[in-house]
Each structure stands twice: as structure tokens, then as C-alpha cells.
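[scheduler] slot 2 assigned
[scheduler] job type: sequence-to-structure, two independent chains
[scheduler] chain ordering preserved from manifest
[runner] begin chain α
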Amino acid sequence: MAIIAREGRQRRRLSARLDVSRLVASALDPHALLETVAAWMSDLVGATEFDFLYQKGCRAHLWGMHPRSRILRRTAGRVAPGSLRGGSLALLRLLATVAIGCSLTAPAMARTAAPEFAGTARLDVFATSDVFPGGDTREPDQGLRLGLAPEVTFHAGDHLRIKPWADLGIERYHVYPERDLVAYEFGVDLRRSNVRLRLFHGFANDELYFPDPSGDAIVDRRNTGAEVRVEVVPGVRLHGGIEREENAFDELHPERDDRRWSTRLGVERGQAQTFRTALTWFYRDTQSITDLYSYGQNVLRLDAEGALVARLHGALRLEGGVRSYRTGDVFASNFSRQDNRWRVFTTLDHPIAGPLRVEFGAQWRATGSTRDAKNSVVRGVGLGLVVER
């Protein structure tokens, strides 16, 4: 099986150009479509020097740029890969909260307007110069991602709004098909006057964390959290949140299992349709079961987005952080390790027709570590079609 896995990860280089006739001919075959797009993007940027990523928020991607985006953060705990045991309790609690809230407000909801349905669907093409940064060699890849995010809003009386939502992400990779992933996140927003409370839970199973000749590292992720947003004066909002994340690795890498608590506080001003700025501080406290991968991390993030010219909308995110490992064993590879991590994200989107718009994104990420083997630089761009109702 290990030989088959290694053979399946051999890099394939395509030289075909993307033309309309080939794209149409392959549209009904997902694998043919993926090869067509991957070949075009490799020709466009020279194969290994760029990282085509898409907008939205997972560790290696451009997710989370827009203020309404839900970020699926990866998570930890001792969960058997492929099972939902680690997140089932949190899931039941979240569903119970939603059910109780809806039942208590049902009489008022019955006297108000009908529910409002909305949502977003998007298809992105991306490629990466290093899908597993921090290794000895770069490992470029290309792929497709489908995202679906439905939501429904209930009005309870004149002031309370209850909005359940879900977010599904399906990723398919070209060079490393073992990294194919289906990620879920769902929750509920409760809004009354100038206060919004968000409760959410997400999970992803059997993610390839990194390839290894002796046995790939496979991880299940869970995250559960809450966020509060308050408008203190017109146009100025304070927000804060807390999130518990769990990562459960397979039986070959149990020493990497960990739990993480993330706290964030921030302030934002303005509206995305005109001009919005936000400043957010994060603290992540990660505790691995062996202490070999335990660390604390401070991150400061600056966001700016707004209307530009000719119906063009732009967004920029600057992020810098310091990660300090707390490994107590002198012989451990992460002993006294410290990383400086920098990220720059940018997107441009333009409407095409009705609810359809096209979006271009780019990013640059760099890690400077006292452990030289973990230094890395990743560049990227991505292209997506978005339908939002």
C-alpha cells in the first residue's frame, strides 16, 4: 500500500493549453476538467513558483477575507479517524441550543414575515507551489474547490433574528489526490438590535497532513466556538470570540494529537460595500499530548476592503505573528523553537451578470524559524466564479 501511495503522488506535468473547445469537451468529466485547468495554470505561471489558492479561511487557503465568511479552523483531541466522536457532543449541544431558541420564539415567529432564504455557491481553481510547506522540497499542486453556503433567516417579533447556516467545502487535488477533502461547518446567528451572537461547529475527516514514506500523517479535525459582535456607535463594531479545536491523528502519528484554544478580540469600522477596516488580535494556546508540539502564538491582523473603480471590489489582509514552542525536552526538535509568521492576502472581484461575479485572489506567506528546516515561502493566486443570493 505504501508503494502504491508513493506512486500515486508522483508529479505529473501537462503541457496542453487551455482553449474553449477543450474546456467544453471536458466539462462533463471532472477529472478531465481538472487536468485541463491544471495544465493551463501550470503553463501560465511556470509550474512551481506560484500557489493558486482560493478565498475562504482554512490553513492553506485564502478563506476568511470577507467579514461574513465562516472560517473552518482545523482542530484536535483523541478521535478515531473517520469518526465523529470528538465533535458529536458539541454538535448535539449546538443543535439543542438552536432547537430551544426556536421553540421559545415560535409564537412570535408565527406572527411575523416568512423565512428569508439566501446562500452562496462558488467554484474555484487553484494551484500551490508548496501544499506541505516546511519540508525539504517544494510540493506544488493544483485543484478545484466547490463551496456551498446556504442560510435561512427567521424573524422573531420586531427585533430578534435567528439565522441557521451551513458551509460545505469539497476540495479535489491533481498531484496529491490523497489530500482530497470534504469539510463541513454549520451554526446559528442570533441577532437582536446591535448585538449578534454566533455559535458554530465544524469538522473534516481523513485529511492528509503530510506525506511520509513510512506512513502518511492523516488527521481528523473538529472545531466549536462562539463569537459576539456589538455595534457600540453607528459604524463601529467590537467583536470577540473563543474557539476550541481538536486534531486527532492516525495510529502512526499519535504523538501529534493536540487541543487548541483560540481567543480573538477586535474592532472594525465601516461597511464592506463602501469601505471597511478592522484590527484583530488572536492568541492560540496549543497543547499536544506529548508536549512535543505545544506552543503559544500571538497574531495581529489588519483588514481593509471596499469599492474601488468600475464596480470593482477589493480586499487586503496583512497578518503577522510570533509562535513560541513550549517543548520541555532538550533533545526534542522543537526545543526553544520560535517562528515569525507573515501573511498577505488580497482579492479583487467584479460582477458579471445578476448574482454572478468573478473573483481573483493572491497571497504570500512566509515563515522564519529558529529551526531552519521549517523556513518557507509560499506564493499564490486563484480564480473563482461566485453566485450569491
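[runner] end chain α
[runner] begin chain β
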Amino acid sequence: MVAGRPRLHYDGLMSHVRVFSIESLSAVHAFFRQVDHLFATLDGAREARGRGARIREVDEYHFRVLAGFTLQALPKAVEALRLEGGVIHDPADQWGEVTHPNLPEIGEPVFMEAKQRIAAYGHSGVAPGA
């Protein structure tokens, strides 16, 4: 279980937004707000699950809706950052092509517990019906 929101690449950018134009600031702030809302919701679900609550279909739908709104805010934020002089490197240099149903190649699990769960339940690490 992950405790708290992970540090994201945009965390370091937050201290620099004060030098952006008002148009750029609005778009970047909207994206930050959506990402923070999504992670806060996911953190709440993790905490609830830790108390024995089950993630229901309606919860899964809610996560997907929040993720969709976050993705809708992304193009405006990217364009705003480009206008502010940002450069986007092509991720194709780092990542290979993966199409459904294939998954990217991953290395051996680092922790024995994870390795045992994967051996028992597959790559999801979750028991069927859990």
C-alpha cells in the first residue's frame, strides 16, 4: 500500500508558476487542481480499503471520471508550458510500443512478498474476487 500522494514531476514546477503569464497560469493551475483532486480521491480509497471497505463499481467509475477530467485539462496545460518556453522530449526514445493486450517488459520483483503474490495471483497481485 502506498502512503500518501507520490511526488510527481510537476511538484518541482509549482514554485515557478509565479513567473507565468495569467493565461498560462490559469491552464497550468487547472491541471494541478485536477491531478491533486484525483490523487486525493485515490488516497481516500486506499485508506478506506485499509479499514476494510470494498471498492465498488461506482467508485471505479468515479476514478475514471476524475482521470478523464485530468486528461481533458492536460492539452491546455502542455500548450501553456510550451508558450512559456517549455520543451517536451519525445518519450518514444525511452519507451517502446505496446499494444493491447500486451504489457511492457518488467524486471524481477524487488520484494519477495510481491514476487509471491504475483506467483499466486498473476501480475495484478490481487486474489480473484478480492
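[runner] end chain β
[qc] chain β: The chain is about 55% helix and 0% strand.
[scheduler] slot 2 released
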